[in-house]
Fold:
Amino acid sequence: MLVELHPNKELLIDIRYATADNFTGKPVYKAGKCFLHPVAAEHFKKAQTLAATLGLRFKIFDAFRPLEAQQALWNHTPDPDFLSEPGVGSTPHCRGVAIDLTLIDAKGNELDMGTGFDAFTPKSHHGNLEIGQEAQQNRFTLLGIMTCAGWDFYRNEWWHYQLFNARQYQVLSDAETGAGLL
Structure:
């Protein structure tokens, strides 16, 4: 049901919730695997093609997030400005139709986006004018690539994109998918 993405010369995968390098300070996943719903995977391929025309690639921080992991994140930091509450049904990651990512250059260096991934501050918001011009341009480039490839953005997180009408896709647990993340 889900498609696994693998790192290669065109894609870096750094699943932060499989490490302590995330806002919880500890691993949430056992495995650093990256999965998307097949429809989302097709949209991501288009985004990769568009980025390549600019000499850019992607680094993925998270994609499918099992419902159990979403609950663990919410239990740690129940902040609706940056996390979807698991019980209200607005969990696009838990449907496999959301992705957290950034742009990287040909050498694998992350472009300056003004904040790091999962920086739960207003500086993470799209259109925030308190970040430098280069970071603004990089965010606009990411936004343009992703929206042209059929992704919607979340206004509070420059790194988060999801398919339009995400709620039409089923919420999934780790056990249901066999992803083996937990």
User: Anything to note?
Assistant: The radius of gyration is 15 Å.
